[in-house]
Amino acid sequence: xxxxxxxxxxxxxxxxxxxxxxxxTTLGFVRFNKKAEVEYIFVNPIFRKKGIATKLLQLVKEKTxxxxxxxxxxxxxxxxxxxxLNKWK
Length: 89
Description:
The protein is of the alpha+beta class.
């Protein structure tokens, strides 16, 4: 896995959403609530397997100060992410 240098990308934070992007594209985003429940996480297919989902989840954990709760995925790809991120539960 090659990580992405996120210094070159803007981190936007709105109420319950972190987004990494630049002027051309969105790398990924995560939507969460105050209980640290991750409601939705997305990483642009071009940037997958580069640690972006992990970084987004770290931001949620830092922001809420709570243990991450991943809601049940609705896609096969979401299931794969959930299985690989058991450390966040």
